Structure formats: structure tokens, C-alpha cells
Amino acid sequence: MGTNFSDVVRDDPTNNVPDTIFSKLGLQLHRRNNHPLGILKNGIYEYFDTNFPNMFHKFDDLCPVVSVKQNFDDVLVPADHVSRSYNDTYYVDSQTVLRCHTSAHQAELLRRGHTHFLVTGDVYRRDSIDSTHYPVFHQMEGVRVFTPDNWEASGLDPTSYAAEDLKKSLEGLARHLFGAVEMRWIDAYFPFTNPSYELEIYFQGKWMEVLGCGVMEQEILKSNGRSNSVAWALGLGLERLAMVLFDIPDIRLFWSTDERFTSQFSEGQMGVKFKPFSKYPPCYKDMSFWINDSFTENNLCEVIRGIAGDLVEEVSLIDNFTNKKGMTSHCYRIAYRSMERSLTDEEINDLQWQVREQVQNKLNVVLR
Ligand code: DAH
């Protein structure tokens, strides 16, 4: 990609990108044809190529460092929306972020004249730690613009026309990926679309959200040189889908370089079911402390991830109370487990000792 990320981590109060995140920039798992994320991307491409030959322009190499304007303003995210906070998003400086969704590229691509496009990329969010959440994951964005000649013959109003085309196209995609499954449309809210929907499919006994989508807000089209048009837009999370499609039980595995994982995808084909090579025992450590007003679980998780990296599997709040003086205590349980080997007691005790030390110093909480 040729992008130089050296300026992404800085000792600056408006920068909250830790080394653990920095080290993921440029890895581009979605561009590896023998990686589950690359395989899924190619599987989705195949659906669009078959059903809409030569129609969608594909981008999978756009730089994840974007402006606050691209990530939020251009897609009408309100000024007070939580996703803009330092607690939820990685800021490089006050005007620059690691994109938290691939929607960050909608406006610029429209302005560059694109009307049919798919954007795949790594996205970044501060979050809690469990088997389905990781601060870096991958999304695919799709946009299709229509002009009056498209909807005029249909007898539908432009919005209904776009919404029908969207639903038809995405039901086709879900069938392409999951086979003959039951599906349902749920009304949703996104700042950039109206109406907005989520598609759910009934898979392995549960309704599962597959993607968010909708009819693009007129304002986005107008501001980017497409008055007199309507468009649909969609965004899907690749890890969520890949975990279900390939039976991958923990999101950390996507980052594994263990050959027992990587070799299972060497054919580059959909339809593979991952065979766990072994499940090593977890080790649980609890820690309790009095929190302060600025305490957040995302900050706690970042400190723990900074020390234990991918050896931490889950962080969960197991007790929470406020005493008569109004002081609030939290007890967190940390599950340590490697996907690749057994951890020694000594190693875990050492990690936990460092966690206690840094939680106390960096978060200014009082250990109990
Ligand atoms: N950007 C949304 C997210 O990250 C996903 C999304 C929803 C994208 C609806 C879209 C859309 O383009 O129309 O959660």
C-alpha cells in the first residue's frame, strides 16, 4: 500500500492509538486469498460479479487513516454521537482518526464520480474484550446509485425503487453465502440512510444480524455531486460472517500465524469448516477496585490488551456495588487463554501482576 504509518502513534494528548493497534496497520488480512477474511471477500465479489457483471468497482486498499470529516461529518453522524468520543474511537490527532467504519469512504468516492462500488477494509474501535470483539475488524461497504431513467419506468417512487432493489440484491447475497436460509428485514437507524434496515438470517437455531443498509440520505448525494439520484448503501462485518460460515470460535484466531490455523484455509475456498486443533485451559483472575468518574471499561480493556495481547480472551464485570459513601466498586474477571499453547502459572501471575500495577497507575483507581 506504500502508506507510512509512522506518525500514527504519538505522545500527544489527542492521540490514543496504542502500540498494539499500531502493529495491526497495514496487515490487510482481507487481501490474503488464503485467509478466511480474504476468502469471504472473494465469495462476496463472486456474487456481485455473477449477478452484476462489471458493474461494481472494488476498493480494498484505501488508507484506514482518515479525517474526522470523512469518518463522521460526511456521513451525517451527529456532533454529539457517542461514536465520536475518545472512548470509542482511535484518534491520531483531534482531526484524524483510524476509520471506525468503511462508510468513511462513501462521500469521497461519490465525489470522484463512482456510482457502483464495494469498499473492503480494516476498521478500528475501542471496545470490551470477548470472543466476538476485537479492536480491529473488517467491513465491506457497498453503494449503488440510480438515476431517473432507472426508476421512472418502474412506476415506483425513487426511494421505494432503491429499497426494493437493495432488498432483492441482499437476499441474493445471503443465499449465495448461506444457502436456502430464512431471512427477515428489521427496521433500523443509521445516520446516513433513511429508511434503514438490518437483514437477519435464521442460522443454526438463531436469528443473526448479517448487515446494515438503507437508502442513502439525499443530503449525502447532493453534497457530493449527485443531485437527482437515489442510492442504496450497505455495510457488513466480515468477522461476524466468517465466524459463522467457517465455524471459527474466537475472533483472535483471525490474527493467528499458527500453521495449524492458517493451513486449514490454504485452498482459498468457501465451504471450509475450521477444526479446532486443541482447546487449552483458561485461567481466571479477578480484580476489584474503586472506580473514579472517568473510569470506562474500554480504557480498562485497552490496558489489559496492552500487557496480555491476544492471551486475554475475555474481561467481564462480575460484581458492582456502591457503598454508603457513594464509592463504586467493580470486580472484573479476566480470562487468560492462549489459542496456541498452554500457559504456565508463572506467566499468568506475571501478567496479572503487571495488569494490577498498570490499572492502578494508568486509570487512577484504588485496588481493593
Ligand atoms: N457503518 C455502519 C456500521 O459500521 C454499517 C452500515 C450500515 C453501513 C448501514 C451502511 C449502511 O452503508 O447503509 O455499523
Automatic annotation (TrEMBL):
Keyword Aminoacyl-tRNA synthetase attributed: yes
GO molecular function ontology, one term from the record: phenylalanine-tRNA ligase activity
Catalytic activities: tRNA(Phe) + L-phenylalanine + ATP = L-phenylalanyl-tRNA(Phe) + AMP + diphosphate + H(+)
Keywords: Aminoacyl-tRNA synthetase, ATP-binding, Ligase, Mitochondrion, Nucleotide-binding, Protein biosynthesis, Transit peptide
Superkingdom of this protein's organism: Eukaryota
Gene Ontology, cellular component aspect: mitochondrial matrix
InterPro entries membership: aa-tRNA-synth_II, aa-tRNA-synth_II/BPL/LPL, Fdx_antiC-bd, Fdx_antiC-bd_sf, Phe-tRNA-synth_IIc_mito, Phenylalanyl-tRNA_Synthase
GO biological processes: phenylalanyl-tRNA aminoacylation
EC code: 6.1.1.20
SMART domains: FDX-ACB
Keyword match Hydrolase: no
EC category name: ligase
Residue span, Aminoacyl-transfer RNA synthetases class-II family profile domain: 121-276
Subcellular location per the Swiss-Prot or TrEMBL entry: Mitochondrion matrix
Pfam families in UniProt: FDX-ACB (PF03147), tRNA-synt_2d (PF01409)
UniProt cross-references to Gene3D superfamilies, sorted A to Z: Bira Bifunctional Protein, Domain 2, Ferrodoxin-fold anticodon-binding domain
Domain FDX-ACB, chain residue ranges per copy: 278-368
Family the entry assigns: Belongs to the class-II aminoacyl-tRNA synthetase family.
Its job: Is responsible for the charging of tRNA(Phe) with phenylalanine in mitochondrial translation.
UniProt protein name: phenylalanine--tRNA ligase
